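Treating backbone geometry as a discrete language has practical consequences that deserve illustration. No coordinates are needed to read the tokens, only the vocabulary itself. For completeness, the protein is quoted in full, as a sequence line and a line of structure tokens:
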Amino acid sequence: MAISRFSYASMRVMELEAAIKHYTEVVGLRLVESDDQSAYFQADECQDHHCVIVNLSDRAGIDHVGFKVNDPSDLVEAAEAAAAWGLAVRDVPQGEIAGQGPGVMITLPSSHNMLLFYHADKIGYANGMLNPSPGVSKNKVGAKVTHLDHTLLSCENAQPTVDFLTEVLDFSLTEKVVDPAGNIIAAFMSCTNTMHDLALGPGPDGTFHHMAFGMHSRGEVLEGVDILKEDEVPALEYGVSRHGIAGVTTIYFHDPSGNRNEFFNGAYQAAGRPGLVPPIIWDVDNFPRGAFYYESSVPEAFFDQVT
């Protein structure tokens, strides 16, 4: 299987206008298109139609995650392999999701929906496609995010999903947290050359923990925190911190419906080929240092609060 990258997260929100305001004026995404039920956003340094979709609902959380494949034939291969694993599979016709072609929706063992697709409409970079400026426009609104980097999904038992993603979709396991018996508590997985495109952590099946927006520098993360404080956006009580896992500078906060977002910078580069290097292992006693290196403790709400 040839998955090229994590493309987007499709989220449920309870107030559409509040979500549009948050993802444009706080996070700093471009609003691509919207109607009375959904809105599509893209980061400045990406050309595809969207990296975040928000859908009006009576509850918050994740609808599905979208991953782009390298060839249309990969969709057929993935559908057949997922069905052979006993997973639910359905075809998603062109037009069901704006700005992209047909795809295959797979319900993972964790109860999350993963949509694989090949075609995405191109909207170009925010700075233009002909002789663009290499800098950030002085008229830029919101934080200086470059792209949607990864998402962490919550489930009761990560192992079956880890097995499917590594054995069928050729993901690499880069880091994992294990209990004394060696069972996986959290897994960090890559389908590209970044440290993680998709992560799995503890919580009820099918729930959402966070999605992370990348930035060029630690300084831009701090600038993002200033925006959060100015707009009174709820943030994790630690403020700016550092992960031992991945080594990134980070701040967590929530959209108006309670979906957790992250600004971060500094993830290391992964091998880029499945199975080339073994994963880093964290035992559960050292997980607080792996999660929050400066504080060496995990806030109780960090894994309890999912949508």
Observations:
- Residues 218-230 form the longest helix (13 residues).
- DSSP finds six helices and 17 strands in the chain.
